[in-house]
Automatic annotation (TrEMBL):
MF terms in GO: RNA nuclease activity
Pfam families: NYN (PF01936), OST-HTH (PF12872)
Superkingdom, natural source: Bacteria
Lineage: Bacteria, Bacillati, Actinomycetota, Actinomycetes, Micrococcales
Domain HTH OST-type: 247-323
Extent of Low complexity compositional bias: 212-221, 231-242
Annotated source species: Candidatus Agrococcus pullicola
PANTHER family associated with the record: HTH OST-TYPE DOMAIN-CONTAINING PROTEIN, SLR1870 PROTEIN
Name of this protein: NYN domain-containing protein
Residue numbers spanned by region Disordered: 193-250
InterPro entries associated with the record: LOTUS-like, NYN, OST-HTH/LOTUS_dom
Length: 323
């Protein structure tokens, strides 16, 4: 039987879109600009805006992990003005995941930097230059990307969109083969939102726009705390400071995240062990069970029986996440 062709994924992140959308989702439409978050220094005294910014931190590692479930990531780019202090807070997180930072300088007084046009041009150029790309992941919710998604599909690519609830164009979601809500990604704790404001795009679904979402400070803090905990457990051994954590704990978090992603993407209750290991390697190429003192992947999983359940089906070894 012929081997199935390898899937190769390209990820493109409209950084401003996803970060501003998340901030406005938690704190009300227009809050990112009214709070002047863009000019918030990375280092400085504690303030209300700094606290709100920290609460709205986007876990881009979870986004990259989810994108890797479609195949091997061959390129990933994030578009923003990286000289902006607020954006600089994310540089370490992105570089640790081998994301290329594309510098976009503002071209107008309104601070528009043309990231959507540059991103679209790069996608089309890459698809013609690298014909082995099978999947395109667009991390944004702006309706400006509808034509890009349609063109990528016409070129035979599988298009995945990822956006923040309340700021995603319904038409963009319809133009993709699949669209994932950031809050629904494994490892992200969904926020409970109430109130009058919304970060909805002008072309977003009216029902979403009328939802007018904002989060209470207490809920946001709880959500952020859990996201930080999950991120610390995930396969982020490449990040600076990982030497301060137990590699075995990092590996356990990586296993949990991989199982959650695969369970979410399929209806299968049990997953083949080799599929789980392949997903873990996509998320963290450094992972090696032997370096943790285990002779095999099966032994590695068996040592984490409180996290994963194992059963044998003939020659196959199957896993599932324990409740």
């Amino acid at each position: 039987m012929a081997d199935q062709p390898q899937t190769r994924v390209a990820v493109y992140i409209d950084f401003d879109n996803i970060v501003i959308s998340r901030y406005d989702q938690l704190h009300g439409r227009g809050s990112f600009h009214s709070d002047k978050v863009r000019n918030l220094p990375v280092d400085g005294r504690e303030s209300k805006v700094r606290t709100r910014f920290r609460e709205a931190t986007v876990d881009l590692g979870a986004v990259i992990d989810y994108a890797s479930s479609y195949g091997s990531i061959v390129l990933s780019r994030a578009y923003a003005d990286w000289s902006v202090p607020a954006h600089a807070a994310y540089r370490e997180q992105l570089l640790a995941r081998a994301v290329d930072l594309v510098q976009m300088f503002p071209t107008t007084r309104a601070l528009k930097n043309g990231a959507d046009i540059r991103l679209a041009v790069d996608v089309v150029e890459d698809l013609f230059r690298l014909d082995d790309i099978t999947h395109v992941v667009i991390v944004a919710g702006d309706s400006d990307y509808i034509a890009l998604a349609q063109r990528a599909k016409r070129l035979g690519k599988f298009v995945v969109g990822i956006g923040v609830a309340g700021s995603t164009s319904k038409s963009l979601a319809a133009a993709c083969d699949e669209f994932a809500d950031y809050d629904a990604l494994p490892g992200i704790e969904p926020v409970t939102v109430t109130g009058e404001d919304s970060a909805a795009d002008d072309n977003a679904e009216p029902a979403k726009a009328e939802a007018k979402q904002t989060a209470t400070a207490g809920q946001a803090k709880k959500s952020q705390k859990k996201r930080r905990s999950t991120s610390a457990r995930s396969g982020s051994s490449q990040q600076q400071g990982s030497n301060e954590r137990d590699p075995a704990d990092d590996a356990s978090g990586l296993l949990e995240r991989a199982l959650r992603i695969l369970h979410q993407k399929t209806d299968d209750e049990w997953l083949h062990a080799n599929v789980v290991k392949e997903q873990m390697k996509r998320m963290d190429p450094v992972f090696n069970e032997k370096s943790l003192g285990h002779r095999s992947f099966s032994e590695f999983v068996a040592a984490r029986d409180a996290l994963a359940e194992v059963r044998e089906d003939g020659q196959a070894r199957l896993l599932r996440l324990r409740d």
